[in-house]
Amino acid sequence: MLNALEVFTTVIIGLMVGVEFSVAFVMNRIFNALPEDSGQLARAHGGRMLGALMPFWYIGSLVLSAVWAIAGWDRPGAGLVVIAAALLIVSVIMSLLLLVPINNRGKTWTPENRPADWKEQMNRWDRYHYVRVAVIVAAFAFLVTALA
């Protein structure tokens, strides 16, 4: 049963990493290349769509990692799982303190009501997101290593 939990957790977190990597290095670059209103509207829609899903994915990933760490405490690699869970905690804290406030504002913007500094706020969100992606990639790498 523990083996199934390990694989399931790794796959779920791997998928989350893939989505977030794609947002950072593919989708936002596409959105930034669109004409101003289209790019801003795409970001707002993405913020609403992913903003509704990601809290469950991040918290769920953290819970799965914690359960794995507890259930497999006496197995090799348990320390790596604890480190991965700690990194996922960092990613959740970063999300709540840095990214979610910007996302909550941005998902309501339209070309008519967006603030003058909307691009600056989106660039700040992108910078924080790059760091968060690095954190969850590291967590994923620790989990994969723990499987070996």
What's the mean pLDDT score? 95
Poorly predicted sequence stretches spanning 5 or more consecutive residues: none
- E-strand count: 0
Strand content: under 5%
In one word, what is the shape?
elongated
The percent of residues in helical segments reads over 70%
Structural account:
The chain is an all-alpha fold and 148 residues long. The radius of gyration is 17 Å and the shape is elongated.
Describe this protein with a few key phrases.
membrane, 148 residues, Anthrone_oxy, transmembrane helix, transmembrane, mainly alpha, DUF1772 domain-containing protein
Short description:
The protein has 148 residues and is mainly α.
Topology record:
Layout: H1 2-33, H2 36-71, H3 78-106, H4 118-147
